[in-house]
Design goal:
8 helices, 58% helix, 0% strand, mainly alpha, 2 domains, AhpD-like
């Protein structure tokens, strides 16, 4: 296992990347599971790149038992949700904005756009604004996710709208994607995970009123 002294590496991250040859058998099993799963088919995913596995996966390797459960849950939430990909990714970037998780936004905003989210909606979310133009499904996801983060619950009206459109499974899937990416944001922010290739930070600071 990599030596951990609480000191950031040269690239700024706290959990230094672990060379493949230095992985314990338990860590290697987690890394292999990630690299053999659906994430490996996502272009530019850290799971698809050769060398040490990065992103939040690098953090999860430090506790392989928990890390393997987390990566399995994440695969279920991302790739087998009852919500359409566009809406699932929209919830992810809402969470990234709530936590100002730069790496999470960098990774998932482009996936949201590729899934059909209007760039203007993403820009509004990035700047802490309620998007001016959303379709009915996007409005439900925005209202539900934002209320859940900001008030730690949802109103009866918001719940009813989500239930009528997505059903009980959809509500559970929507709660799960928001909650899971809070965990991912916590890992990335604690690690200070740098963006690939020195990319600019995509999220601007928010004013106290945003």
């Amino acid at each position: 296992m990599a030596d951990s002294k609480g000191v950031a590496g040269a690239d700024g991250r706290r959990f230094r990347l672990i060379p493949s040859e230095s992985l314990t058998p338990e860590q290697r099993a987690v890394a292999d599971a990630i690299r053999s799963g659906p994430r490996a088919k996502v272009a530019n995913s850290s799971a698809a790149k050769p060398g040490p596995i990065g992103g939040p996966f690098n953090v999860w390797l430090r506790s392989p038992g928990i890390g393997n459960l987390i990566q399995q849950l994440g695969a279920e939430i991302r790739f087998r949700s009852s919500l359409p990909s566009k809406l699932n990714e929209m919830a992810i970037i809402i969470t990234a904005r709530q936590w100002t998780s730069q790496y999470e936004w960098f990774a998932h905003c482009k996936l949201a756009l590729e899934a059909g989210l209007d760039p203007a909606i993403a820009d509004d979310i990035a700047h802490g604004r309620r998007p001016a133009r959303m379709d009915p499904d996007e409005t439900i996801v925005y209202d539900f996710s934002t209320e859940l983060h900001r008030t730690h619950g949802v109103s009866d009206a918001t719940y009813k709208a989500a239930l009528g459109r997505f059903g009980e499974r959809g509500i559970v899937d929507l709660i799960a994607v928001n909650g899971f990416y809070v965990l991912v944001s916590m890992c990335l922010n604690t690690d200070k995970t740098p963006l690939p290739d020195g990319a600019r930070l995509p999220l601007p600071p928010l004013s106290s009123g945003s």
